[in-house]
Amino acid sequence: MATTTVTTNEVPQRRVAPTGLALAWHRFKKSLRSPTPYLTVFGIFLWFFTYWLLCEGLQLPRFVKIPGPVTIISEWFSTNPSQGISIFTPEYYHHIAVSCRRIAIAFFLATAIGVPLGLLMGWSRAFHDYTFPILETLRPIPILAWVPLAILMFQGYETPVIFLATLASLFVTTLNTMLGVQSIDEAYFRAAGCLGSSKWDVFKHVVVPGALPYIFTGLQISIGVAWFSLVAAEMVSGDYGLGYLILSSYVNGVTVPMVIGMLTLGFVGWFTSVLVRMIGDRLMQWHVRALALQGR
Predict the structure, then answer these.
(1) How many C-alpha atoms does 219 have within 13 Å on its Cβ side?
(2) Percent of the chain that is helix, strand, coil (3-state, to 5)
(3) Residues 95, 40 within the same domain
(4) Burial degree of 185 (CB within 10 A; 0-12, 13-18, 19+)
(5) Whether residue 276 sits in one domain with residue 186
(6) How much is the pTM?
(7) Residue 185: left if φ>0, alpha if ψ -120 to 50, beta else—which one?
(8) What does each C-alpha distance from 16 to 59, 134, 213, 288 come to in angstroms?
(9) Domain extent for 166
């Protein structure tokens, strides 16, 4: 009895890493199978409970002057706030809009200057030797120490505030970009040289893509540094903004708008950091796919 053999040329399926919304959904479902989101919710609840217990529950002497979470939330969402600030007052959104506009300008300037500067510092040894000592001399100076000089150099309220936020953000962006270039394996440069690539080709196809993960990590830190530098600047020189709201509320003895401004600052800063991370994931699909295939 003759036997026949059937051969099939089946091509093994290649695992394709999810991207975009599929990647976000994949990470969300994966996080639900871990204790992380539940511990996060419990941590937030524990923080609010401790806050309420110290200020409104036990009314301890050190915390009796601080408005508690019930007072803050009721005033924050009140249509007729007793201390003048809530989600229903136009002035509240004006403060947010002014601060966001200043941050957008400062972050754009710091990125436009810091990323090329960091790329050149990491790629060129001679340029690094010229510029790095200057950067390291200026970087430890606190941002508040620049305030008098900024007021003397620039007129009005807007320009000094934007200058201070840009300066603080610039150092973080530049250093992380430089470290990104220095972290690239020398084998990539040798391989590009063996293939006859010009210096511009090496810079465009090796240096810039290789430094992108460090660049966007630096930008996420940079946006946070820009926010707290902006608030410090608005407290000294400004007529609107979340920093001005916090300081003016403290000076006028109204503590509820002060805490509302602080919490709003935290939420808006967190949102801008998430936005920078999303843009980075979009521009670095190859890096995101590599992390997804590793289960990260």
Answers:
(1) 27
(2) 75, 0, 25
(3) no
(4) exposed
(5) yes
(6) 0.79
(7) beta
(8) 57, 46, 21, 12
(9) 68-293
What distance in Å separates the CA atoms of residue 35 and residue 175, rounded to the nearest whole number?
A: 35
How far apart are alpha carbons 100 and 228 in whole angstroms?
12
- Domain count along the chain: 2
For residues 167, 173, 174 and 180, what is the CA-based torsion angle, rounded to 10 degrees?
Answer: 170
List the structure tokens of 195. 């293939």
If asked whether residues 204 and 279 sit together in one domain, one would say: yes
Tens-place pLDDT, residues 229-284: 888 888 776 678 898 899 888 888 888 999 999 999 999 999 998 888 888 877 77
Cβ proximity of 233 and 243 under 8 Å: yes
pLDDT at 27: 67
CB-CB contact of 181 with 208 (8 Å): no
**How far is CA 52 from each of CA 14, 46, 47, 63, 254, rounded to the nearest angstrom?**
53, 10, 9, 10, 19
Question: Distance between CA 146 and CA 209 in Å, rounded?
Answer: 34
CATH number at residue 258: 1.10.3720.10
* Nearest-angstrom CA–CA distance, 102 and 293: 39
Please report the beta strands in 218-270, taking only residues with DSSP state E, as ranges in sequence order. Answer: none
Dihedral-angle region of residue 237 (phi above 0 means left; psi in -120 to 50 means alpha; beta otherwise): beta
